[in-house]
Queue: 4 jobs
Job 1
Amino acid sequence: MNIVLLGAPGAGKGTQAQRLVEEFGVAHISTGDLLRAAVKAESKLGRAAKSYMDEGKLVPDKLVIDLVKDRLDSDDARRGFILDGFPRNTAQAVSLDSELSELGRSLDGALLVDVAPEVIVKRLSTRRTCRNCGYTGTEADVTCPRCGGEMYQRDDDKPETIQHRLDVYQSQTAPLVDYYRGHGILKSVDGDRPVDEVYADVKKVLGL
Ligand code: AP5
C-alpha cells in the first residue's frame, strides 16, 4: 500500500493515517510531524523551517524533498507507506514521482479527504496534540489517551495562521487534485462525518 493523502489543513489526514497505520502496519510519513520534531530538536533543518511553519507558509521544497527521500528509503517504508502532508505543490509531486520511479515503486492511490473550510476552522482551533507521541485529539483530551502525555495547542493552530494555511492550501496544494486525477489514481471521501464512518469509506475506496 503506497498512498498519498490529500486535503486541507485539519481535514483529518493525520487522523485517518493513524488508523491505517495501526491496522495495516505501514509507515506513516508525515512531513508536518517530521518538521515539528526537527524544530523541537533545534536541528539545522528545524531552525530553517520554524519561521515558515509559525506563519503557516510552506517550508522550501528542497528541505522537505530531501526529508521525504530519506524516509522513503528506510526499512519500514519499503513495506508500504502513507504520505501525509506531502506532496504540497506540483514541484513536490513531480519530485515524488521521479524518486519512486528510481526506487522501482509507484503510488497505488491519492486519497482526498474532502471537508469544507468552515468545518476546518472549528476543528483546528479545538485540536490538541500530544507533546510526547504526537497523538491528535481535541480539547476534550486533557491528557493523551494513548500514552498519558501532555496535550498542547500547535503554534499554527491560532485563528490568524489557520486562515493563511487555508489560503496556501487553495493556491498551492488544491491543484494536486487535478494532477492525480490526470494520473488516474485520485480517490475521494467525504471527511465531514464521524471518524469511524470516514475510515470505513477510506478502506472501501482503497479496496482494503
Ligand atoms: P501539517 O502538519 O502537514 O499540517 P496540515 O496539512 O495543515 O494538516 P494538519 O495536521 O493541520 O491536519 P490533518 O488533515 O492531519 O487533520 P487532523 O487529523 O490533525 O503541516 C504543518 C506545517 O508544516 C505546514 O503549514 C508547513 O509550514 C509545513 N509543511 C508540512 N509539510 C510540508 C510540505 N510538504 N512542504 C512544505 N511545508 C510543509 O485533524 C484535525 C482535527 O480534527 C483534530 O482535532 C481531529 O481530532 C479532528 N478530526 C479529524 N477527523 C475528524 C472527523 N471526521 N470528525 C470530527 N473531527 C475530526
Job 2
Amino acid sequence: MPEFQTSPGMRDILPPESGRWRRFVGIFSDAVTAAGYGQIIPPLLEDVGVFHRVGEATDVVTKEMYDFVDKGDRHIALRPEQTASVCRAFVQHSPATPWKVWYAGPNFRYERPQRGRFRQFDQVGIEVLGVEDPYVDIEVIALAWDFLAKLGLLQISLHLNSLGEPSDRERYMQALKDYFSNNLEHLSQASQATLTKNPLRVLDSKRPEDQQIIDGAPRISQFYSAEAKAHFDTVQVGLRELGIAFVINEKLVRGLDYYRHTTFEFVGGTMDSAQNALGGGGRYDGLVEALGGPATAGVGFAIGLDRTLLACDDEGVFLPVPDDVSVFVVDITGGRQAMLITHELRSAGISADRAYQGRSIKSQMKSADRSGAVLAIIIGSDEVDSSTAIIRPLRSDQEQYTVSRKDLLPTITKALS
Ligand code: HAM
C-alpha cells in the first residue's frame, strides 16, 4: 500500500474516464451556450457567510462544510454548491438582467462516502437571475431534461413541486410543525431532532418508521396563494406542451433552504434511493436579497456529474472512449525523424504520437496499435536515405505504401479525411 492515497470521498479521474468528463461538460456547454447562457467561473473558496445564507438549517451548511480560517484570519469555505456563489457575484458586479449563466466544476461536502456520494463532486448547472416569469422555470427544466436525453439516459423521471410564495411556505411550515408535534411519539428520534430545526426537512426522511406519519401530513398545495398556484399551473402546462413528462411530488422540499415556488429533481431509475437524484433545482427568489443585493428573482439547477455518469454506466450509455490519436510514428533510426514528423503533423492539427528510447520495430508497432491510430508512419534508414516514408493502414486490409517525404503531410491529410 503506498504511503499516500486520495482522501476518503475524493477520487483521481484517469483516462479514459477523464475524456468522458470533458465530453459531458462539452455537450452541456454547447447546449446552454446555444440558449443564451454565458459561463461564470466563480472561485472555489468564498467567505463562509455566503454559504450560511443558503440556509442555517441544512446539513450542507451545518455539518458538511469544509471551512477554515486562512492566514489572513478570514473564515472561508470550499464551496458546497455554486448557486450562492453566483448570487454573490451578481450582487458584487450588478450585471444587466436577465443574467443567464452556466458553470461547471467541483464542490465539496463532508458527507459519508458511498456509491454516488463523494466529498468532492462535480456539477454542471445554470442560473437565471432577474426574471419571475414562469416560462424561465420551463426553459431551465427543459434544458436539463434535453441534456440528460442527449447523454442517452432513458430511465429518468422528473419530480416537480412548488413550495409556494414565502408566506405560503411559512404557513405550511407552521401547519407541519403543529402536525408533527402532535404526533411526536410516532416519529423517529432523528426526525424529532429535525423537526426542531426545520419541519419541512422531516418530509425528506427515508426512515420506514416515519412514513405513515409523513403520508398523513398536510400538503403544501393546500396553502398556495392564487399567485403561487397560477405560477405553478403555467409551469405544468408548458412542460406538457413541450412533451416533458413529470410527476408531482409534494414531498420534494430539496436539501437546501433557499427554495420558493418551483422545485424539481431528476431521479435516476437505476440508483439507490438515497443517491438517486442526478440533478435538481428550482426558484430561490430571496437569495440575492439575503446576500445584500436588491430583491431579485432566481431559478436554476445543478446536475451532478459523478452520479449521472454512474447512471450512464448502469444504462450502458455515454460510455468512456479512449482518447485515440490518428497517426503513430514508428522511427527505427533513433527518434529524430519521429520528432520532426510528429511536430509537423501536430502543427497541421493532426493528432500524432510516437515511441521513445529507440525501441525495436516490434515494440513500436505494438504501441502504435495500442494508441488507436488509424495510420502508422514507418521510417527506417532506407526511408531516410531516399527521403521517403512508409504509410501503413492499421485498421484495414489495405497494403502499406511509400510516399516521398515532401508528400507525406498532404497524403496523410487526404487519407484521414
Ligand atoms: P443539490 O441537490 O444539492 O443542489 O445538488 C445537485 C446535484 O449535485 C445532486 O442531484 C447530485 O447529483 C449532485 N451531488 C450533490 N451532493 C453530492 C455528493 N456528495 N456526491 C455526488 N454528487 C452530489 C444544488 O447544489 C443546488 N445548487 C442546485 C440549484 C441550482 N438550485 C438552483 N440552482
Job 3
Amino acid sequence: MNTQTPTHEILDALIIGAGFSGLYQLYRLREKLGLSVKVMEAGDGVGGTWYWNRYPGARCDSESHVYCYTFSKELTEDWNWSERYPGPGEIVAYLNHVTDRFDLRRSIEFGARVAGARFDEENNCWDVELASGKHYRARFLITAVGCISSANIPDIEGLDSFAGEWFHTGQWPHDGVSFDGKRVGQIGTGSTGIQAAPVIAETASHLTVFQRTANYSVPARNRALTDEDRMTHKRDASIIRELTRGNTNGHGWRISEQNALETSPEDRKLIYEKAWETGGLKFRSSFADLLASKQANETAASFIKEKIRQIVKNPETAASLADIDHPYAAKRPPIDTHYFETFNKDNVTLVDLAKTPISKINRDGLVCQDIGANGSFLEILHQLDTIVFATGYDAITGTLLRMDIRGRDELTLREAWSSGPRNHLGLQVDGFPNLFMVTGPGSPSVLTNMPAAIEQHVEWISECIAYMLEHEHTTIESPGASAEWWVKEVNDAANATLLPKVKHSWYLGANVPGKPRVFMPYAGGLDRYRDICQQVANDSYRGFVFDR
Ligand code: NAP
C-alpha cells in the first residue's frame, strides 16, 4: 500500500464493516467509552451480509426473536418482527432502525472499501487505506467483516462466452432479477440453493438444479408471527437472553440431553417426526449425541433420507437427492420451504453432477460430461438463459485476506496464515498489535446464532480496550505460544465431533481451490468459549502481552 499519502483523520478506533458486528462495536466504543470511532463500509447502506444477499428465497435460519441484539431493553421493546424467520429486507430495516435509534450513521462512511492496513511501529497505530486512496490512522483496528462476505465463483471454462446473464447469490442485484419465461440453471445445493430453487421455479420456464453433493434439509415452517407471539417474546426477553448467552449454539432452545442411541427406535422416530413438524434448526438438537457419534447421527440421517424418498415422486431424482455422503449437520444444515417438493414440478430437473460432471460453459449454456460404460465421453448441453451461482463463499478468512493487512516487520496476514488461520481466542493474531477480529476464525461464529456470538465478542473487545485505557497500556498483542495453545483447542474441539469428516465443507475451507484445509470455527460451544474468554480477562488478559 501507498504509505506516502497524507493522513486524512486520526481516530481512536476504526471498524471495518457495518453489519451486526460493526454497528454494535461502534455503539460500545463511541457511546460507552467515549472514543473517536469510524466505521468503513463498502456498501451504500448498513446490513453487512444481508445488504448483499437478496437472492430469491433468502431468509435467515435463526428465528427472528433471537436474531437481534439483546443489549438494549428499549430496542427489544420497540421492534416488531413480522415472521418466524426474518428475510433480508426486514433484517436490513432492523439494522437501519438500530443505526438511527443510536445515532450511529454519522460515524459510518459508506462506499468506503478498505484496501489495506499497515501497523506503524513508530507511532503504535494503524494506517488504513481505502480503495479510493484515502487514509485514516487509528490506534485500534477492528474487523467486523462477517464470515460469508466473499463470493466463491467457480472457475468454469467458458463462462465469459455465455450469451445469457449470470449472477452469484451473494452479489444479488438490488433491483432484482426476472426469471419470467427463462431457462435457469442453478449451481449449488447448500443453504442458499435450497432456499432459492423453489422461488426461482415459480416463474422460470424451466429450472435445472446442478447438484454436486446431495444435502440434507428440514422444513423451516416459516409463518407470520401473531401479536401473542411478539408479546411472549417481549415478556420473556430476559429469559431468552440468558438462554442464548448461556448455551452452546446461541439459539433460543437447549440441546436435548437424551442420547439417540439410548432411545428406542419407536421413540426416536416420534421425536424426529415432532422435530420435522416443528421445523427449523432445532431438529439438529433432537438428541445430545448427533454430532458426537456416527451411529447416532445415522438415525437422523436415515430419517431425513426416508422423508426425501417419500416427498420426491421421480425415483431416480429421489435417489440422487437422498444419496448424501456426509453425516447430518456436519455441514451447515439447511432449512427450506418446499425444496424437495419443487422437484415434483414439471418445469424442474435435477442434474446429478456426481454422474455427469460439469465440463464447461459455452454460449448456449452448461455442458456436462456423461462417461459411457465403455469409457467414452458424451457431451450434454443444458441450454440456459440465466445461470445462478449458489456456490457459497470463501468463508471466514476470505474477506480478511483480500485486504492487504500488515503487522510488525511488514508481516502480511496472508503470510501469517499461509498454512491456515492462527490466532489467540479467535481474537488476535501474533504480530498484529491492537487488531481485533469479530467472529474471526477460531471463534464459535457460524456454529452459533450469529448475533449471540457477535455480542460476546464485541463486549469482550470493548472491555479489553476499557482495561487498556484504565491501565494506560498502548498496545496489546498475543504471542505465538498463545496462538499455538488456541489452535490446538480449536482442533481438539472439532475432532471431538463429526464436523471435520466432510469432503467439501466450507468450515474446512475445502470448497475453495488452494485454500488450506483447517477447521476454522471453534466447535466447543459458545457457553464454554464465553467462559474461557472471561477467565482470560479476569486473569489480567492471560496469554496477551501489553506494551511489548
Ligand atoms: P455452500 O453451503 O458452500 O454451498 C455451495 C454449494 O455450491 C454446494 O452445494 C457446493 O457443492 C456447490 N458448489 C460449489 N462449487 C461448485 C462447483 N464448482 N461445481 C458445482 N457445485 C459447486 O454455500 P451457501 O449455500 O451459499 O451457504 C453458505 C452459508 O451461508 C451457509 O452454510 C450458511 O451458514 C449461510 N447461509 C445461511 C442462510 C440462512 O440463514 N438461512 C441462507 C443461506 C446461506 P459441494 O457441497 O459439493 O461443495
Job 4
Amino acid sequence: MGQRIPPTVAWSDRMGGTVRMIDQTRLPGELTMLDCRDVETVARAIERLSVRGAPAIGCSAALGIALAAHRSEASDLDGLLEDLESAHERLAATRPTAVNLFWALREMRRVIDARAIGDITRLREQLLSRALEIVEDDLNRCRAIGRNALELIPHGANILTHCNAGALATAGYGTALGVIRAAHEAGREIHVWVDETRPLLQGARLTAWELCEEGIPATLITDNMAGYVMKRGKVDCVVVGSDRIAANGDVANKIGTYTLAVIAARHDVPFYVAAPISTVDYDLASGEQIPIEERASEEVAMLGHQTEQAICPDIAIFNPAFDVTPCDLVTAIVTEKGVAGSPYERSLLNMRDSPNDSDEVGGIDG
Ligand code: MRU
C-alpha cells in the first residue's frame, strides 16, 4: 500500500491501549481513523463494516481481546478471566460467516488457557504479543499468497475481482489483491476489472481506491456487466478472496461470487480463490454448513452509504451478504503454502499439514 496510508488495523499504546483502524465506511471520500478504547467499540466497528474482510476481522478480534485485557479493571485473575470471557462472547457474535474471526478468538483462548497461574500482568502482555503476532503473520501470509499465485498470472492478463480482498481486508497487501499486487510488482503489465459489488460497493469504493493508489491499471464495472466482458473475451481469469472454505473446497465469499464462477465456467475462464489457511474450516464437510450472514434491508434500499430512499419503499428486501461457490467451479485455491487443486479434500489437508510455506501440495492438476 502507498506510503501515506496507515495500517488497516493496529495496536496503539495511547491512552492505556487502543485498537486503531481505518474507518472503511468513509472511504474513498475520507481517510479517517477510528480509535477503539473498549471491546464494544471494536465489536460495533466489525458489525457496521468499519473494519471488514475476513482476515482483518480476525486481526481486529485478536486485538479486541488484548484490549479487553488491558482495559479490564479486575484486580485478580478470576475477574480478568470473566472480562475476557464476555469480550470473547461479544466479538464472536459480530459476524457469522468469516471463520478467521473464530480462528483468531481460538488462538487468543489458547494463550488464556496456557496462562501462568495468577499472574495478571504477564497474561496481559502475552495476549497483546499473540495479537500482534497474528497481525504480522497475516501480512506475511498475504505476501506469500501473492508469490505463490505468480505462476497463474501471465504477462498482460486481464483479471476480474469482486468485493475487496485487498490491504483493507487484511493486515496489509491483501489476498486476491495481493495476487494482483504481486503480479504488478513482478512487471506483468496486468489490467483489473473491478466489480462494483452491491449492495455496499466494496469494489467501487475500496478495491478501486487501492488500485488507484497503487497505480495498477483498472476499470470499474457494475456487477451485471461481468458476463458481457467475459463473453467478449476480455477476462483471462477471476481472482477472489474468501470468508470461509469448507474442507471439500466449497468457497463462501461476498454475494455475487457464485454468479461470477458460473459465468466464468461458461466462458472457460479460470476461477481462482486466494486465502490464508486460517480461512479453511476443516470442521465443515461442505459449503452447505457455512452460516450465511443476512444484513439489514437498508443496505439494499440505499445506494452506497446514501441514506435517502432510493427504491420503492414497500418492496420486501432480502440481503444475504455472502454466497457459496461449489468446489467444482473453483480452478485453484492459492494459500500461503502453495496452490491447491481438485480434489480439495486432499490438497487442503496436505496444505494444513505441510510444515513450510510455499510447499508443493498438489498443484492444480490434483
Ligand atoms: O462483507 P465484507 O466486506 O466483510 O466481505 C468481504 C469479502 O467477502 C472478502 O472477499 C473476503 O472477506 C476475503 S477478504 C481478504
